[in-house]
Amino acid sequence: MSLVTVVVVNWNAGYQLAETIESIGKHHANLVDSVVIVDNASSDDSLSHVEGGAALPFNLELILNDENRGFAAACNQGASLAKTPYLLFLNPDAKLVENSLPKAITFMEEKSNQSIGICGVQLLDEHGFVARSCSRFPTWLTFFIHSLGLNRLPWFRGFSLHMAEWDHSDTRRVDHVIGAFFLVRHSVFEQLKGFDQRFFIYLEDLDFSRRAALLGYGSIYLADVQAFHAGGGTSRQVKAARLFYSLRSRVLYAFKHFAPIAAWIVLMLTLFVEPFSRLGFSMVAGETRDSRHTLQAYRMLLGDLPAIIRSALTLSADNP
Fold this sequence. Notes:
Blueprint: E1 4-10, H1 15-27, E2 32-40, E3 59-65, H2 71-79, E4 86-90, E5 94-96, H3 100-109, E6 116-124, E7 134-135, H4 140-148, E8 172-174, E9 176-177, E10 181-185, H5 186-191, H6 204-214, E11 218-229, H7 239-257, H8 260-272, H9 274-285, H10 288-303, H11 305-318
Parallel strand pairs: 1-2, 1-4, 2-3, 6-11
Antiparallel strand pairs: 4-10, 5-11, 6-10, 7-9, 8-11
């Protein structure tokens, strides 16, 4: 029975995109109704490698954006074509393996698990190592520790956003599973009106998980179900931009989910403390390239600051 629509957002993923689609074709287990590729104005030849969709055992649909609309908006575009009970948002640097879908869907279909809205699985990298793919909902203290760079130290792992202290070897309910393999009930997605498109990229999935939890829908991490994830994705190509969007999303998340005073503290720490801690750690490590990326990212952040504050104030007003 076709229960799943897979949405893949592509931006210059190269050969990885074709490998992702190939993995779905190999391991669809008759559960996939369609795969929707949303291309965010890629400039490489990644789309040419997935031509010939007629041979695939599911519908292959393509949405071509004439500009990079961001990850959240592209996911919403892809989901708008779905007619299935489940949506799987799959990164173009991720691949399904045997039983990725059957086990996850079987779990979600059990009557005792109807309060679970989001399902993630154990993600393995190219060396077979288990990624630390689950996160806790952040507080302003979490971002304070990140701004100081203390999350790099082992004594502060318990305060980190990512659950790096846990080996991810057992199944458990968690606050959040990362969006590389993000299986969502379609009904929950519609209740939440999809991803918040004010997050261009980064933390849109965390925001989604937080809003789902507020509606009473939990997230589950399944340790006995695997998928492949290279990690880093195409954002490896643009490290300064990656840092800029990460910082931007952090500020937006703070204004959306924290009290106003805490949100302003996060903004001030991000602007006036974190650049110096990042540069300091880079100098100690002798990573001059990282220093350049940090400076480029903060130039971008300062240039976009008026727009960020306008968006942040809108988020704050939407969530009194």
